[in-house]
């Protein structure tokens, strides 16, 4: 695909919709967006009758399909807006802006990487795993969830990952516990130089902490509500320490969602 | 430059990011020729308030963002030159805790190349909460405007942005006009509360009828004073409502958070110098 930059605001169309566990996966056409997408980017969509937009993680991008290039987003019904989105049938048209935010940075060399995600927010790790594999990086994937219904399908990731570990809080599948319980051990076993994390704050904090203890780099995709998604409203504050050592509050959408794990002031999030 | 030279469609303070983020949605010319009011700049950097800063309500957003900005120094060194290079006509929104701060801001901005005008934020919905100079009475805003006007060249506009409080708006507009404001921006977030009780301001389509009433009253009482309508503008129809009520321009704010292309679309529609409302627009 040709190298194109910057987000676009387009009319997307739902071309497939599928319930997987507790989530709804929508496949969308959105002219220009799949071509520009990099792992870690997200999209913002308009929900009928709502002023604020809904930010969605991209789980998969297909360069071609019978509908042309498409992207799959994961929707968790958490309120009126996401419930409306999850209920949209094939053929629904949505105003969509994307790809938004800073993507994951990829290592130059073929190093080992540990990818840690929880719930639907683990989605950006799947396209990341594919990119890493293309670069010859060894990928160890850890997918966690409160229960089996909220576990983002890890099966398809077996193509790109050399190992897949599943953790559920209730032990319904895989190891019982939380990411924080297991991440140091998993990092040691994977011998990874880079840790990538996506999910709720507790997971990101645990992954960033483990990376720091092991002397590895970490990048985390933060999950905070973004009223506009585009950087215009300053409504998604993320407390960080700048490269110059000065405390700052940046915008999670425009200055993130991917930031270095050791730069986040976790106690202030 | 008088207020009448301002384009019919402007970007409202606090809704255009740093300007860079908006450029992607403004077509091939980007920000060229766009009248852009910056987010409010203060002398010192401000981190802004804690989250959640924005809550969605029917027809709008309640917000308490807390005026995050990098401070005047950093703005002058980085953001302003970028905006000027991009061709934007930059109206810098300023906010201060004292009249002295407003005067300092105006003086230093008067020397910065590319500042087309100032907008003085004298109607924030929660000025006490964010530590701004408190404007309860018209003479408070008038004294701020006078302090700014003394420090800023007369050939460049000073806009006074007022709270859309219909019982006080005409007095407030008159005082600012007499104190030297080139025009008044009528409409700002309406004082409101989050569901958890914190103070904030309501903006979006829900406040349009409130601001429209204020614009109508100000234009009727002070027909010689240019009025810029601000509040809930999101399409041709809502913009025309303000222009028909006597506003010379409109500012687009919250609509950009919903659809970042709004300002480009409205600018294209109002590109002709004199707009004519047709039945189709309504």
Defining key terms:
heterodimer; A: 269 residues; alpha/beta; Elongation Factor Tu (Ef-tu), domain 3; Rossmann fold; 2 domains; seven-stranded mixed sheet; six-stranded antiparallel β-barrel; 5 helices; B: 282 residues; TIM Barrel; eight-stranded parallel β-barrel; four-stranded antiparallel sheet; 12 strands; 32% helix; 19% strand; globular; disordered C terminus
Write the layout of secondary structure elements.
The complex is a heterodimer of chains A (269) and B (282).
Chain A: E1 8-20, E2 23-29, H1 33-36, E3 42-45, E4 54-62, E5 70-75, H2 80-86, E6 93-100, E7 112-118, H3 125-134, E8 138-145, E9 163-168, E10 175-176, H4 179-190, E11 194-198, H5 201-214, E12 217-221, E13 237-241, E14 247-251, E15 258-260
Parallel strand pairs in A: 7-8, 7-11, 8-9, 9-10, 11-12
Antiparallel strand pairs in A: 1-2, 1-6, 2-5, 3-4, 3-6, 4-5, 12-15, 13-14
Chain B: E1 9-11, H1 20-23, E2 35-37, E3 54-57, E4 60-63, H2 72-85, E5 89-94, H3 99-111, E6 115-121, H4 138-151, E7 158-162, H5 169-178, E8 183-186, E9 190-193, E10 199-203, H6 208-221, E11 227-230, H7 236-244, E12 249-252, H8 254-258, H9 262-269
Parallel strand pairs in B: 1-2, 1-12, 2-5, 5-6, 6-7, 7-8, 8-11, 11-12
Antiparallel strand pairs in B: 3-4, 4-10, 9-10
Helix pairs in contact in B: 3-4, 4-5, 5-6
